[in-house]
Amino acid sequence: MRIQILGTGCPKCKALEANARQAIAETAIDAIVEKIDDIDRIMDMGVMITPALAIDGEVKSSGKLLTRDQIVAIILAAN
After folding, report:
1. Max CA pair span of the chain
2. 41 vs 8: CA distance, rounded Å
3. Which of 12, 21, 42, 62 makes a 20 to 30 Å CA pair with 56?
4. H or E element: which one contains 10?
């Protein structure tokens, strides 16, 4: 599983990445975290508001700082 964090490096983007890493550790899912900060690539994925979270290229959330528990639920639903 590839969990992608889309954002240009703002504090909320960094917090979303940290929450995603905690969620991966909690679920023991075999996943990697990919940080996407290229604005053209972010827009190509259909995201207009960051931070955003995508799993295997499918955007699951944008414009929100998801909690670790919310990310766990998204991971488990996608798995």
Report:
1. 32
2. 11
3. 12
4. none
Please list the active-site residues. Answer: 10, 13
CA distances (Å), origin 8, targets 23, 37, 60: 21, 5, 18
**Residue 24 is part of a domain; what is its CATH number?**
3.40.30.10
Structural domain boundaries, residue 35: 2-78
**pTM for this prediction:** 0.92
* pLDDT tens for each residue of 2-47: 999 999 989 999 999 999 999 999 988 899 999 999 999 999 999 9
Q: Give the helix/strand (H/E) hosting 30.
A: none
> Please, what's the b/e burial string for 21-59 (b: 16 or more CB within 10 A of its CB; e: otherwise)?
bebbeebeeebeeeebeeeeebeebebeebbbbbbeeee
